[in-house]
What we know:
Strand order of the largest sheet: 2-1-3-4
Order of helices and strands: EEEE
Number of strands: 4
Amino acid sequence: xxxxxxxxxxxxxxxxxxxxxxxxxxxxxxxxxxxxxxxxxxxxxxxxxxxxxxxxxxxxxxxxxxxxx
Length: 69
C-alpha cells in the first residue's frame, strides 16, 4: 500500500457474498505511508466480494469490490 500522509496500523476487513464482514489481520504503514501484508482466506467460507483497509480510527483508507464470475 502507498498511502502518502498516513502511518500507523491498518486493518484489513473482507466483505463476503453472504453480507458478513471479517477482519483478517493488520499491518503497519511506515512514516512515508508504505506497507504490505498477506494472509490466507480459509477454504469453505463464503466468497469474498470486496475489501476495506481501515485506519486506526476506523476510517476507510482504500476499498475494492470484486466481480463473482
